[in-house]
């Protein structure tokens, strides 16, 4: 299966996020296929959690909807297994966005063993302090899974330390606060990315707050790609089981925007 770096081999990457189980796991599976067909280079799959501290209202509500369907982590692994098999197998990198609690409750060894089995390339854990990365990293690496580091606008004095040990890609957080769509992004992303690149040559993708093609293009112009979560989740909230065309059109427009940034 693809490694995270493969998402960045064809130019600037577009990376959508989806909450697993929102409006049912079968719809999540179908929507991931739709987004990949529309041009997604990698997909972040959110494991729903009752206390998602990094998430704004849109993704919190998606987590609540997903949990209300009774979706369990095993169901999400089964979904990924299906995505990775058959004639129409999804081959782009898939990464989990989750929190420490679900991994520890499920069991770290069991979690990463299954990640390896089904072809999960990496994990993003927003509530894991950099200093504690080793606790997950040792087990994750044993199973070929990369632990993605986040660098926020407040990370100034820690960028060197985090970037030097980063793997997969660096998730550059564009704005302070929780996830969510923002009318404008005022952070000086260019200078943060330039600082990161002094210490690592792995790709840097920007997320938090991006919802419009012009924002995706602007962020991809100064980095290696754009990550979008809340805007995707909002489309699914609005269309429920019938979001296929709206998702396809949106992802295609965002992919074209990041490609324009690299032209």
UniProtKB/TrEMBL annotation:
Q: Which Gene3D superfamilies match?
A: Aldolase class I
The keyword Endoplasmic reticulum appears for this protein: no
- Single GO MF annotation: tryptophan synthase activity
GO cellular component term, pick one: cytosol
InterPro entries in alphabetical order: Aldolase_TIM (IPR013785), RibuloseP-bd_barrel (IPR011060), Trp_synthase_suA (IPR002028)
Q: Which residues cross the membrane?
A: none
Q: What is its EC number?
A: 4.2.1.20
Q: In which pathway does it act?
A: Amino-acid biosynthesis; L-tryptophan biosynthesis; L-tryptophan from chorismate: step 5/5
Which is one Pfam family of this protein?
Answer: Trp_syntA
Q: Which residues form the active site?
A: 44 (proton acceptor), 55 (proton acceptor)
Q: How does it assemble?
A: Tetramer of two alpha and two beta chains.
Q: Which family does it belong to?
A: Belongs to the TrpA family.
Please identify the protein, giving its name as recorded. Tryptophan synthase alpha chain
Protein's organism: Veillonella tobetsuensis
Q: Which gene encodes it?
A: trpA
């Amino acid at each position: 299966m693809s490694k995270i770096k493969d998402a960045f081999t064809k130019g600037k990457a577009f990376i959508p996020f989806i909450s697993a189980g929102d409006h049912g796991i079968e719809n999540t599976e179908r929507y991931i296929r739709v987004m990949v067909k529309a041009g997604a280079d990698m997909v972040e799959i959110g494991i729903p959690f009752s206390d998602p501290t990094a998430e704004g209202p849109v993704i919190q509500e998606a987590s609540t909807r997903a949990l209300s369907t009774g979706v369990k982590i095993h169901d999400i692994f089964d979904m990924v297994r299906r995505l990775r098999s058959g004639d129409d197998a999804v081959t782009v990198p898939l990464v989990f966005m989750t929190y420490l609690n679900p991994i520890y409750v499920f069991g770290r060894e069991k979690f990463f063993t299954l990640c390896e089995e089904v072809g999960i390339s990496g994990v993003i854990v927003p509530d894991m302090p950099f200093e504690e990365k080793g606790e997950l990293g040792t087990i994750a690496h044993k199973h070929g899974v990369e632990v993605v580091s986040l660098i926020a606008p407040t990370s100034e004095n820690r960028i060197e330390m985090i970037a030097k040990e980063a793997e997969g890609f660096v998730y550059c957080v564009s704005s302070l606060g929780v996830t969510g769509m923002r009318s404008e992004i005022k952070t000086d992303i260019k200078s943060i990315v330039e600082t990161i690149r002094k210490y690592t040559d792995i790709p840097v993708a920007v997320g938090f707050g991006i919802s419009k093609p012009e924002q995706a293009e602007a962020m991809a112009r100064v980095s290696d790609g754009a990550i979008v979560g809340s805007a995707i989740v909002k489309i699914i909230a609005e269309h429920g089981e019938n979001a296929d065309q709206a998702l396809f059109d949106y992802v295609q427009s965002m992919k074209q925007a990041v490609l324009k940034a690299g032209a």
